[in-house]
Structure to design on (567 residues):
């Protein structure tokens, strides 16, 4: 079984977001980079769990990004990827990125392509769905559980107000969320092994960027909290009803 | 040249997020001098002609029951054919679970630029620029769509539904579904609860509640307000509450009209998920909790005393 896991570099969740160059660029000064949590905790760990059951399985990692992605790729290899491919481009357009992954996916003949449900920087929730359409394979989004029996996958996906269990034959593209697996910490043996695992750098294939970011904005700060005394809850209800018109 | 709004439905009924998408799509059409039309794949018991009141003139329906389950491959082929048949150049859908499954595929299949999770009308003064939340709610990006055909998924609770007088014509669209690529074997719906992303009011609680056995008063307050319940990440991680209730940067991002946070300190990751809420109320015994800086109203005090009193006062107001 061949598994491709898409990983992305994102700022640590505690990062304060600041922009530069007239609010047109994300200011990376002092930012700690991590593997996008959905890619790491759910997509990658699920792939590792499948390999633990089927040692013949191979896990390939793919990321689209410049050389500064390599520390997070090594971390993913330390957790359990077998080899990694880095597409050398710093594009932020989902279609461009998905086209790169689709090109590798087509050539690599993978049974499963796992992505996180979204990245915590651009929040497009787009890569999995685009890759699936580009390689013309079934797509299950927001998967919270994945079990494999021969070539049939049983997946629980999130739908509005509940869950749905579905079955499909591989190959397929799956976007992963909470429930899929539990976060792991790389061990020393994994970290040592990761140093010598193959990390291939590939130049991007031609693809258009269908969107471009014009500018960024920060949310407008609240005017200041209006405190109500703990023994005067009725006043809070009055404010919510008459002033905020929220209830 | 038209705006085509994809209608999402379940159990025979159109979802609330689609009414927002209809209003939003109709407003884009008006802004650009285009027609607004809707597309419904599958069957519903709702009267489709009444969708005219949200501003669409025509509803295309491919009424094959095979479309009543979400199979992305089947949907993509049908939507692509419908876009070609109707000559639509802007495709609008809700950024809910269904929209997240479909919008990227529509974008790739049509090679049409996608803005996923739009929160405002496009600015067409210089290009076609759509605003969306990024960094999980810590910021916004203005994104230009560079292609002639455009796909926009609208973030739930971001656009006000307006209702007019129109009546739409309903037209059968003959689309042959592909054989199913997936088989749905079970559906498990939490009945009666308000879906979190669509809720007008959300009551949320954190570690300050000390344990899952203390959620009764939160649920009681939520029931009184017809609100959805939510929680912070440590609460979901400790399995005090189901993970789908977790709001924050790595959970669900929401934008309700009113967000009531009980016993939540307000870590940056939590704020990212809720800071688009219109009004925020914070109840916390720690006056230094960072959440107070992001709140509109606050009470410093013991949640176990304040929450039941709040429920009681709201009931009094309802009965007044």
């Amino acid at each position: 079984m061949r598994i491709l896991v898409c990983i992305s570099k994102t700022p640590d969740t505690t990062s304060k977001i600041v922009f530069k160059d007239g609010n047109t660029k994300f200011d990376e000064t002092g930012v700690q980079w991590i593997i996008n949590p959905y890619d790491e905790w759910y997509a990658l760990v699920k792939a590792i769990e499948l390999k633990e059951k089927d040692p013949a399985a191979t896990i390939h990692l793919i990321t689209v990004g410049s050389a500064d992605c390599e520390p997070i790729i090594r971390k993913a290899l330390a957790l359990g990827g077998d080899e990694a491919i880095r597409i050398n481009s710093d594009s932020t357009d989902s279609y461009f990125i998905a086209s790169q992954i689709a090109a590798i996916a087509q050539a690599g003949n993978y049974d499963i392509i796992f992505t996180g449900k979204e990245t915590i920087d651009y929040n497009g929730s787009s890569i999995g769905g685009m890759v699936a359409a580009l390689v013309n394979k079934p797509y299950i989004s927001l998967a919270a559980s994945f079990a494999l029996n021969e070539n049939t996958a049983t997946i629980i996906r999130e739908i509005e107000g509940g869950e749905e269990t579905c079955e499909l034959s591989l190959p397929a593209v799956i976007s992963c969320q909470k429930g899929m697996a539990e976060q792991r910490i790389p061990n020393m043996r994994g970290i040592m092994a990761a140093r010598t695992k193959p990390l291939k750098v590939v130049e991007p294939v031609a693809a258009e960027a269908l969107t471009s970011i014009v500018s960024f904005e920060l949310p407008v700060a609240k005017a200041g909290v209006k405190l109500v005394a703990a023994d005067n809850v009725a006043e809070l209800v009055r404010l919510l009803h008459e002033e905020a018109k929220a209830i | 040249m038209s705006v085509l709004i994809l209608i999402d439905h379940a159990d025979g009924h159109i979802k609330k997020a689609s009414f927002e998408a209809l209003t939003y799509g109709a407003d884009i059409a008006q802004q650009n001098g285009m027609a607004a039309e809707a597309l419904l794949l599958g069957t519903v018991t709702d009267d489709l002609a009444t969708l005219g009141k949200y501003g669409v003139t025509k509803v295309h329906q491919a009424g094959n029951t095979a479309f009543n389950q979400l199979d992305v491959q089947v949907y993509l082929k049908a939507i692509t054919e419908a876009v070609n048949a109707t000559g639509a150049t802007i495709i609008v859908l809700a950024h809910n679970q269904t929209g997240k499954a479909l919008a990227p595929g529509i974008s790739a299949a049509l090679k049409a630029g996608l803005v996923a999770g739009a929160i405002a009308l496009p600015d067409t003064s210089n290009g076609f620029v759509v605003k969306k939340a990024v960094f999980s709610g810590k910021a916004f990006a203005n994104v230009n769509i560079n292609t002639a055909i455009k796909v926009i998924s609208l973030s739930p609770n971001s656009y006000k539904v307006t209702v007019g007088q129109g009546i739409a014509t309903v037209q059968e669209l003959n689309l042959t579904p592909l054989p199913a690529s997936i088989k749905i074997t079970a559906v498990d719906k939490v009945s009666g609860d308000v879906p979190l992303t669509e809720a007008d009011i959300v009551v949320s609680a954190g570690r300050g509640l000390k344990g899952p056995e203390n959620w009764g008063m939160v649920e009681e307050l939520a029931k009184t307000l017809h609100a959805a319940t939510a929680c912070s990440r440590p609460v979901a991680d400790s399995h005090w509450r189901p993970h789908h209730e977790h709001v924050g940067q790595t959970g669900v991002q929401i934008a309700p009209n009113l967000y009531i946070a009980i016993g939540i300190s307000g870590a940056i990751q939590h704020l990212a998920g809720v800071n688009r809420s219109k009004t925020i109320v914070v109840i916390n015994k720690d006056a230094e909790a960072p959440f107070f800086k992001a709140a509109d109203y606050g009470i410093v005090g013991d949640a176990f005393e304040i929450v039941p009193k709040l429920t009681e006062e709201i009931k009094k107001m309802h009965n007044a």
